[in-house]
Design goal:
Helix 1 packs antiparallel against helix 2 and helix 5 runs antiparallel to helix 6. The protein has a domain of 106 residues. The protein is built from six helices and no strands. The longest helix is centred in the N-terminal third of the chain and has 49 residues. By secondary structure, it is mainly α.
């Protein structure tokens, strides 16, 4: 039984392969994305719980303030409650954009994993139909139209910078995205 590990860039031999090295690098990128998402999700979940509690307590303070007699103190409390509620709403909107970020990172991780599978499979690597299938599969996962347009631009040969600028330009031509407020 030969327990020799596959050749690596650190220990190359006649079995060394740039394709295997590429797949390893893709796996490292996937691991970084997944780790970042996991750490971010834990922090955001904690923040979301805090903001939910804050919103509930602010509402309770507002109800209690209604019972106070008219005056400067009541006005100050109510003005501050409105300011806190506005801040909570802004934070909730930021969380929704964070959700979009995690969706994009998940798509990137999935795409890298699928690419690694294709590159690592000699029977598929040189088949243009396999590459087209991969591209179609990746594009089908995009739920945001701007992301699909960016992907299309890159497949047509645009640089990353040009594709990103295209997204920025398209955003300025579009109405603001609907954001659900809680």
């Amino acid at each position: 039984m030969d327990s020799k590990a596959p050749s690596t860039a650190f220990n190359p031999d006649l079995d060394w392969s740039q394709v295997r090295e590429t797949v390893r690098m893709l796996h490292a990128a996937i691991a970084q994305i997944k780790l970042s998402m996991t750490e971010g999700e834990d922090s955001v979940a904690s923040l979301m719980d805090s903001f939910t509690t804050l919103a509930g307590r602010t509402a309770s303070i507002g109800e209690a303030a209604k019972q106070l007699p008219a005056g400067a103190e009541k006005d100050t409390i109510q003005a501050n409650i409105l300011a806190v509620q506005a801040s909570v709403q802004s934070a909730i909107i930021a969380f929704q954009f964070y959700d979009k970020l995690t969706q994009r990172l998940e798509h990137a991780a999935h795409s890298l994993k699928a690419l690694g599978g294709l590159v690592g499979d000699q029977s598929r690597l040189f088949n243009p139909y396999e590459w087209k299938g991969l591209q179609d599969s990746i594009k089908s996962r995009y739920t945001i139209q701007a992301d699909q347009a960016m992907f299309d631009a890159i497949l047509r040969g645009a640089s990353v910078e040009v594709a990103l600028q295209l997204m920025v330009d398209n955003k300025s031509d579009q109405p603001p995205e609907d954001v659900e407020l809680f």
